[in-house]
């Protein structure tokens, strides 16, 4: 091998190692943001050293993240082709890696500096940190595939990789991670929140349907003692089956649950509680739908401008507070469903109250218009609150 080739390989190894080290440092910083999205950035954060990315004008954090992810996707395509094709050209690879380290990699990190919780919401900051970190993780894996022996990966069959971890496969995973960042930035704050609230609403609908189906099941016997005895027999039968076969945990739970229906005599008044809960659950799904239509889809520009009114400036905080409640409610109703399945009347009462309070709080947090004062949704929220109290 010619001396110049050896020198090129040495330079290639140096820049790969330094780039991987930078990526790993940034992964730690973004993981911390994901854990604590409202915490201020650490002074020693690697991204803070990139002062050339800053300016006196406001930076659109989501646009910066989108541009950076798009560039990483494009550069990774070049890199992937260079490491699998002959002749192997270390200098060309060095150029691509330098371009990555000098622009889109620090740009992706800088987008998280700008995406502060008080400007874009903690929810968006946390989600962006997770998706950007995924890009850095996959880019690290691709860089670590760059050969150090001066031979292209294709000659050794490592481009595709028999284990599914070849450079071609890694490039595809990296593309997907970049696309996830681009998707988030295209959605924007309003689009992302609309999607999340819609997902939580769909979960509530699933819980409601399952509870309806369970409530329609008829008990085989009205003798409580007989039911207990039958249930004990079922447990014993399942224990025997576990010893004699490989029954799954889900099969066991499904079998046990099929024996827990509301007794015909209903001594603990489970059915009236179920009817009340289903009515409230229906109202709550309507609340989610109304929030999407009347609040999320009518969000003002985010982040708020410097001259925005106090009410508008507080929108990110209001969104975070509301999202905290809206995210928990499906789990609360899921716990309530489990309490019904177990016929635990005291637990049912406690969870019904908690679900009611959470739903009431969510409607109250978003009752006022974004700019303050009343609007159509304010009137609807008051009717919702009055109705849910009656159920």
Automatic annotation (TrEMBL):
Q: What is this protein called?
A: Cyclin-D1-binding protein 1-like N-terminal domain-containing protein
Entries under Gene3D superfamilies matching the protein: I/LWEQ domain
Domain Cyclin-D1-binding protein 1-like N-terminal: from-to ranges: 67-216
Source superkingdom: Eukaryota
- What is the species of this protein? Hapsidospora chrysogenum (strain ATCC 11550 / CBS 779.69 / DSM 880 / IAM 14645 / JCM 23072 / IMI 49137)
Ranges annotated as biased composition (Acidic residues): 215-233
Q: Where is this region: Disordered?
A: 214-233
Q: Which GO terms describe its cellular component?
A: nucleus
